[in-house]
Structures are given as C-alpha cells and as structure tokens.
C-alpha cells in the first residue's frame, strides 16, 4: 500500500444488504474472473491474496493481513480504490528499490485514497512495526460514476458524530461514531453504499419506536452493502453495547 494523506444492516424491503463477519477466518466470497483485475497480490506474504469479503458488479472488497516485520512484495494497484485500516501499524515503503517513506504510523480506522500504480514502478510497502496490520481495500469496478442524475451528497445522521474523510468524483467517505446508548437518528439511504465497521460492538435497529429484531454483535472488519433507492422507510441504528461503535461509510457516486 501507499499512504496518500488527504485533507446498518438494513432490513427494509427496498434496501438490500450483504454482511460478512470479520471473525470468520475461513469463509470467503467466491471470486469471479471479472474480479481479478481489481484484486491485489502481495507475493511475499504467506497469504498473498487475502480474501474477498464482498463483491458485486460495482465494487470488490479485499481484506489483507501484513504480519509485523514483513514486506508485501512488488505489486500494482488498479486505482479508484481506498484502504481502511481495521488494525493500523507502522508502514514503510520502497519505490524502484529506493526508500520512499519510513516508519509512518497509521492508526486504527485510517482511510486513504489510492491512485493507479503499475507493476513496473517497483512499489511495495512493509510492516516495520511490531504488531500485525489488518486492512480492507475497497475498489470500484466501473470506469466512471454510476449514480443517476447529479449524484449523491453526504449521508446525514442527526444524532451521531460524523466526519467527512474523502470526497472526489467517485465517492464520498465518512466516519460515523456512536457512543453507547446513542442512535443515528431516523434516516434513509439514497444511494449505493458500503459500511465497514472499524470498532465493533452491539447494534440495534428501530423504525419509529419499534425495535426491529434482536441486537446483533458486530466485529471490526464486518462489511455491509446497501442498495439504497431513496424510497425506503426511514430507520434508526443504535449502539446498544458498552463501548463506542464506529464505521466507515462509503457512498458511491
């Protein structure tokens, strides 16, 4: 990876979601030939391809682990891609055999944008810290925007901490944080979105004053696809656990 520093489970009839538990170290989404141009390959690692945790016609999510002291090996990046650190650490990088950067700290939950990097550039990064790094790459498959009309704006939550992390012509990336006992506030999903949980906990959902089903345990790295239409019934997501619940929300333009 390269560091580029730039300044709920929905159950409504009109919104579909696919969820993957980060704790399931065996199960992986089947990979098609259409996915392969968008996947990373770290040739130096014991598990060079990680695993695909979500894929559809618009996007593929690939989870990779880099052990302490290991270098990924020279690889390419397809571009139109972000990384999300589930567990951060210390990165160093080489380009064409020369040191590009060294000892850069990336905290848990950090997000960055990736431009294309060809294999011929000789790019690789290494975990020069003493703890493993766990990250998910979100890669767009389409060459241009997919949203109808003028696209989509920020997702609005009236009662949660929300930070805008990235906005460009392809996506909007926000970080959402819910303290114990907090709810997002009623909202609808108007576009195609991805949720990646960076801090796990216990999640509840309600419509109006009615809680929907049982609370669910959420693990860091769990990923959700939302096919929003803007016509779905408003719902509200809450943190019914004892620790903060945090997720990265990607809205695809």
3D architecture notes:
With 253 residues, the chain is mainly β. It folds into two domains: 116 residues, Sandwich (Jelly Rolls); 108 residues, Jelly Rolls (Sandwich). It contains no helices and 18 strands. The chain has a six-stranded antiparallel β-sheet with strand order 1-16-12-18-11-10, with no helix packed on it. It has a five-stranded antiparallel β-sheet with strand order 2-3-9-4-7, with no helix packed on it. The N terminus is likely disordered. The radius of gyration is 18 Å and the shape is globular. Strand 13 and strand 14 form a beta hairpin.
What's the helix and strand layout?
Layout (H helix, E strand, L loop, with lengths): L16 E4 L30 E5 L3 E8 L14 E7 L1 E7 L2 E9 L4 E4 L8 E5 L5 E8 L20 E7 L3 E8 L13 E8 L1 E7 L2 E2 L4 E3 L4 E5 L8 E4 L5 E8 L1
Antiparallel strand pairs: 1-16, 2-3, 3-9, 4-7, 4-9, 5-6, 5-8, 10-11, 11-18, 12-16, 12-18, 13-14, 13-15, 13-17
Quick summary of this structure?
By secondary structure, this protein is mainly beta.
Range of strand content: 35-45%
What is the number of E strands? Answer: 18
State the strand order across the main sheet: 1-16-12-18-11-10
Q: Sheet bearing the most strands, described? A: 6 strands, antiparallel
CATH topology of the largest domain: Jelly Rolls
CATH architecture of the largest domain: Sandwich
Oligomer classification: single chain
Instruction: Please identify the top-level CATH class of the largest domain.
Output: Mainly Beta
**Total helical elements:** 0
């Amino acid at each position: 990876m390269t560091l580029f520093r730039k300044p709920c489970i929905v159950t409504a009839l009109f919104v579909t979601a696919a969820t993957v538990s980060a704790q399931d170290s065996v199960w992986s989404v089947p990979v098609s030939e259409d996915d392969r141009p968008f996947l990373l390959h770290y040739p130096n690692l014991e598990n060079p391809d990680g695993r695909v945790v979500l894929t559809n016609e618009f996007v593929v999510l690939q989870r990779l682990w880099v052990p302490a002291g290991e270098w990924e090996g020279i690889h390419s990046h397809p571009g139109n891609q972000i990384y999300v650190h589930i567990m951060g650490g210390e990165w160093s990088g080489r380009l064409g055999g020369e040191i590009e950067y060294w000892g850069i700290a990336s905290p848990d939950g950090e997000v960055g944008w990736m431009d294309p990097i060809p294999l011929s550039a000789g790019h690789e990064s290494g975990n020069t810290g003493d703890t493993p790094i766990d990250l998910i790459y979100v890669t767009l498959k389409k060459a241009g925007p997919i949203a109808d009309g003028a696209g989509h704006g920020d997702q609005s939550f009236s009662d949660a901490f929300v930070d805008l992390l990235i906005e460009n012509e392809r996506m909007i990336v926000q970080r959402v944080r819910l303290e114990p006992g907090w709810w997002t506030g009623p909202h609808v999903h108007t576009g195609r979105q991805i949720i990646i949980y960076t801090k796990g906990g216990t999640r509840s959902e309600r419509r109006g004053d009615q809680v929907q089903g049982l609370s669910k345990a959420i693990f860091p790295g769990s990923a959700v696809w939302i096919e929003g239409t803007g016509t779905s019934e408003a719902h509200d997501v809450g943190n019914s656990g004892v620790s903060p619940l945090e997720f990265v929300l990607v809205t695809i333009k």
